[in-house]
Amino acid sequence: MTNFNVPTRNEVSANNQAIFDSLEQKVGFVPNIYATMASSENALKNFIDFASAQSSLKTKEKEVVNLVVSELNQCQYCLSAHTAIAGMNGYTPEQIIELRSGTASFDSKLDALAKLSRNIVENRGATSPEILKDFFASGWTKENLMDTINLVGEITITNYLHRTTEVPIDFPVAKSL
Fold this sequence. Notes:
There is one protein chain. The protein has helices spanning 14-27, 32-37, 43-51, 59-72, 76-88, 93-100, 108-122, 129-137, 142-165. The chain has 2 domains: 9-51, no CATH class; 59-165, Up-down Bundle (AhpD-like). Helices cover 63% and strands 0% of the residues. The longest helix has 24 residues, at 142-165. The protein is mainly α and 177 residues long. The model has no long low-confidence stretch (mean pLDDT 97). The two termini are 24 Å apart.
């Protein structure tokens, strides 16, 4: 792959410049994965709208899905970003490694979420009835299932974007398992 240009603020539309300014305020910088989306007039806003929509999953629960899916999709950018975010949300380095492998022995409910997420990706949505049964038996709801599937789609977008563009990782790089 040739180097893919990560656009700067001056190289994007006025609408995307406003989004860059908002990201600077909220995050402190514009992550390269978001800046790359700004190569399109619409992709960045559409993605941010999708990613910031209401969900029944709490932030810490979302990181379970993000880590599992990013590991399976072998996205070093998203693994690095979500390893940092998971750490900021209270996961230990050991727990993060375990979540990336698709399990969470330290919490049975999160374990069911991790296993469901792994199963969805590995089977391209043809989820095992046994995995689904365990998910519901762990206290998750149909709403949680819908939001988990949505989140698998959301993180897959950024996984594929990075795998295609190979833009530089602007987070501490996560070690391989």
